[in-house]
């Protein structure tokens, strides 16, 4: 158990809909990262937050947004969903922004 | 751009043999190179990492080597066991925020 909690574990929804994925980092970790894992696509970096502030951005679509709240949990919002958004979405946390990432078990999103 | 190339994409070895996975990165400013193991249905987990001021690091059957000049780093697993079967990802840090960019992954299969 990495100490990073992601909910929901599985989510099935329809095209055009909006979903919110939630992440609780390890106790004390200030940095939160979101990654997307599609089949044969590896781990694609989406966005990083550090203590509530956006730290770095990857190839995150405009339809996607995220935030980190004062209690350090983070949410990833995916809107106007398309079939191609079906993937595993991982959250990871770290104590700083230059060290080991601890990954949650992921949220599997299926868009039908 | 921010890129990490990893190969091979699949690797099959006999139990007891060695396995080598290679990665290249594009930014000479990258200074942190972790390796993660992902088992089926789980999030990636750190197995070993190396920083740019070190050329080699070993932990029991696992070793990582780094060639900064060539921007190459490699994972070596000796005396492989069936439980080593998993997907392995290399990563490199990019930018001041230290975000990790991952390679495409190597599916390692160790046959008994």
Description:
The complex is a heterodimer of chains A (112) and B (112). Chain A is mainly beta. Chain A is 0% helix and 52% strand. In chain A, the strands form 2 sheets. In chain A, strands 2, 4, 5, 6, 9, 10 and 11 form a 7-stranded mixed sheet that branches. A 4-stranded antiparallel sheet of chain A has the order 1-3-8-7, with no helix packed on it. The termini of chain A are far apart. With 112 residues, chain B is mainly beta. Chain B has no helices and 11 strands. Chain B has strands at 4-7, 10-14, 19-25, 32-38, 45-51, 56-59, 62-67, 72-77, 86-94, 99-102, 106-111. In chain B, a hairpin with a 6-residue loop joins β4 and β5. The A-B interface holds A 2, 4, 33, 35, 40-45, 48, 50, 55-56, 58, 90, 92, 96-106 and B 6, 32, 34, 36, 41-46, 49, 89, 93, 95, 97-105.
Short structural description:
The complex is a heterodimer of chains A (112) and B (112). By secondary structure, chain A is mainly beta.
Encode the helix/strand succession of chain A as letters. Answer: EEEEEEEEEEE
The run of helices and strands of chain B is: EEEEEEEEEEE
* Biggest sheet layout of chain B: 6 strands, mixed
> Mean of residue pLDDT of chain B?
94
Shape type of chain A: globular
**Using DSSP, what is the number of strands of chain B?**
11
Rounded to an integer in angstroms, the radius of gyration calculated over CA atoms of chain B is 13 Å
**Which parts of chain B are unreliable, with pLDDT below 50 for 5 consecutive residues or more?**
none
Q: What does the average pLDDT of chain A come to?
A: 94
Structural class of chain B: mainly beta
Shape annotation of chain B: globular
Oligomer: heterodimer
Q: Determine the strand fraction of chain B and express it as a percent band.
A: over 45%
Quickly give the structural class of chain A.
mainly beta
Number of helices of chain A: 0
Biggest interface between chains: A-B, 28 and 23 residues
Total number of β-strand segments of chain A? Answer: 11
């Amino acid at each position: 158990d990495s100490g990073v909690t992601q909910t929901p574990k599985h989510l099935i929804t329809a095209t055009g809909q909006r979903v919110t994925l939630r992440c609780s980092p390890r106790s004390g970790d200030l940095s939160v990262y979101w990654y997307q894992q599609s089949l044969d696509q590896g781990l694609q970096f989406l966005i990083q937050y550090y203590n509530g502030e956006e730290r770095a951005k990857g190839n995150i679509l405009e339809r996607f947004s995220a935030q980190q709240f004062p209690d350090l949990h983070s949410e990833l919002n995916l809107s106007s969903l398309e079939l191609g958004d079906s993937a595993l979405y991982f959250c990871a946390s770290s104590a700083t922004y230059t060290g080991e990432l601890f990954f949650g078990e992921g949220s599997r999103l299926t868009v039908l | 751009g921010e890129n990490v190339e990893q190969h091979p994409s699949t690797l099959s070895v006999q139990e007891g043999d060695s396995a080598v996975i290679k990665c290249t990165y594009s930014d000479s400013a990258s200074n942190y190179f972790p390796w993660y193991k992902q088992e089926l249905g789980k999030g990636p987990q750190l197995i070993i990492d190396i920083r740019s001021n070190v050329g080699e690091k070993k932990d029991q059957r696992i070793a990582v080597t780094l060639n900064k000049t060539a921007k190459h780093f490699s994972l070596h697993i000796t005396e492989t066991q069936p439980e080593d079967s998993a997907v392995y990802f290399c990563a490199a840090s990019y930018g001041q925020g230290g975000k990790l960019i991952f390679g495409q992954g190597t599916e390692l299969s160790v046959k008994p």
